[in-house]
Amino acid sequence: MSLKFLHQVIIFAGMSISLYFAFWCFTSPDAVGTGYFIAGFVSILLAFAFVGYEVYFLKKTRRLIIH
């Protein structure tokens, strides 16, 4: 497993965890109040930031030869 692939897996895991947390914030019956809504919204923004970082990372490492 290359370092580049491991980096991609970790970014994907972070994105998945933040989306799952947002889903939990919006659907949990125990999560009532504005704080949970704000946390869910920030978590979705964080997931978009992970996608942006993934695109940046792939563009930057495209010309590198990493095995």
Blueprint of the fold:
Blueprint (H helix, E strand, L loop, with lengths): L2 H25 L6 H28 L6
Write up what this structure looks like.
The chain has one domain. With 67 residues, the chain is mainly α. It starts with a helix and ends in a 6-residue tail after the last helix. It has two helices and no strands. Helix 1 packs antiparallel against helix 2. It is elongated. The model has no long low-confidence stretch (mean pLDDT 88).
What's a concise summary of this model?
The chain is mainly α.
Features:
67 residues, mainly alpha
Helical fraction equals: over 70%
Main sheet attributes: strand count, strand direction, barrel closure: none
So what's the overall shape? elongated
Secondary-structure-based class equals mainly alpha
Low-confidence blocks of residues? none
The Rg value, from CA coordinates, equals: 15 Å
Fraction in beta strands: under 5%
Q: List the domain count as a whole number.
A: 1
Order of helices and strands: HH
SS element count, helices: 2
Give the overall average pLDDT. 88
Tell me how many strands there are: 0
Tell me the span between the first and last alpha carbons.
Answer: 8 Å
